[in-house]
Amino acid sequence: MNTQTQGQQNLKIIKWLTFLMFMMFAMTTDAVGEIIPVVMKQFEVSMTAAGLMHYTPMIAIALAGVFLGFLADKLGRKFTIILGLACFAVNSYLYVTANTFGFILSLMAIGGLSIGVFKTGALALIGDISSSTKEHTATMNNTEGFFAVGAIIGPALVKYFLTKGVAWSWLYVVAGTLCIILILMAVFAEYPKQVKTTKEPINLKSTLSMLKDPFAWGFSAGEFLYVSAECAVYVWMPTLIAEYEGNRIFIATYALTIFFVFRAGGRFLGAWVTSRFNWTAVLAIFGFFIMLCFLGSVIGGVGTAVILLPLSGLFMSVIYPTLNSKGISCFPKAKHGSIAGLFLFFTAAGAALGPLAMAAVSDAFGGNALYGFVLATLFTVILFLMLLLNMVFNPTKVRLQQLDKTEY
């Protein structure tokens, strides 16, 4: 086997390692909605307390992103990925021994920290294996496509286990076993050489100093708003349409599954679209349709929301991976772990604070979830305006062109 063929095969292994990592942890994070009702009954906890099962790992991921993201730049992608996966695997197997609600929350916190470590390593690795910022965006969309597939598999596995009388905690045994396989892949894979293009020290201080860059703030704000809107659908849409009894009852029953399927398929489509069309225009157009879906749901009521909110998944699909990719690409590869960590912080913060703010607004108006979606609609309006301004002024054009020449 010649060197070029061996290099291509190694690149495929690394890509599949990245894809499967995202799919694996999505199986656990996005299955929480199915697990919460079981845990509430098992340990007799309130909805407010059970909600910690969603917020705890999100906060842990956020903290790991901002405080540990630099490890991928300092210790290397390979070591960081293996470290995070190993911690996640051990933590996952411990779920079968969890006999208190507090123990479960502790495991979810540790799992979130582990995800934050190996995910920033994986995000930094995408830059290393990309030959241009455009390829970076396509690979990121494919990676997030596998995440979306994991978000379908996880809840389905929990439902299957419960119907067979198997404890939900075995989902984590499956995830832990996948982790072992991924660790073996990571150990034997030959990673691209990491080139340090900056003389700055790599530590927490250097990570926080990146917040002085306006692009770091701009992309962080965009990801926060997007994730807040996305979580609005998969956290609160079931509550919004719970009492729907119209002639679209079949769609209402499978609304969340439809949303996840649209999001998964759309992300693989996004890899094709962003490699052929101007990414700023694509984001602005898709952002506009997301806003229309939310506006239509609020104005038209539950009967309209049953159709439009699941449909929004198709338009949402391309937003997050493209924002994440272009944001990371605006910085040298030697800082990709650190900036990925910062973006991960704002992503997880949006996943935690967005649904929380919606719940507070809904409670203020008598527990009506529709009012929470009014707030979520405001998120989509602001996001669309940001994407529109980005298309008109294209502020990242010069920097991306420069880094395309120097980094790729």
List the helices and strands and how they pair.
Elements: H1 3-29, H2 32-43, H3 47-50, H4 52-68, H5 71-74, H6 77-93, H7 101-128, H8 133-163, H9 170-188, H10 204-209, H11 214-240, H12 249-253, H13 255-274, H14 279-300, H15 302-316, H16 319-329, H17 336-364, H18 369-393, H19 397-407
Helix pairs in contact: 1-7, 1-8, 1-9, 4-7, 4-17, 6-7, 6-9, 7-17, 8-13, 8-16, 11-13, 11-15, 11-16, 11-17, 11-18, 13-15, 14-15, 14-18, 16-17, 17-18
Polypeptide structure, described:
- This protein has helices spanning 3-29, 32-43, 47-50, 52-68, 71-74, 77-93, 101-128, 133-163, 170-188, 204-209, 214-240, 249-253, 255-274, 279-300, 302-316, 319-329, 336-364, 369-393, 397-407.
- It has a single domain (3-190, 201-407), classed as Up-down Bundle (Growth Hormone, Chain: A), CATH 1.20.1250.20.
- The two termini are 26 Å apart.
- The chain is built from 19 helices and no strands.
- With 408 residues, it is mainly alpha-helical.
Summarize the structure.
This protein is mostly helical.
Number of strands: 0
Radius of gyration: 21 Å
CATH superfamily: MFS general substrate transporter like domains
End-to-end gap: 26 Å
- Enumerate how many helices there are, as a single number: 19
Helix content: over 70%
Strand/helix succession: HHHHHHHHHHHHHHHHHHH
Unreliable runs = none
Largest sheet: none
What name does the CATH topology carry?
Growth Hormone, Chain: A
Task: Please tell me the total number of domains.
Answer: 1
Give the DSSP E fraction (strand runs of 2 or more residues).
Answer: under 5%
Mean pLDDT rating:
91
CATH architecture: Up-down Bundle
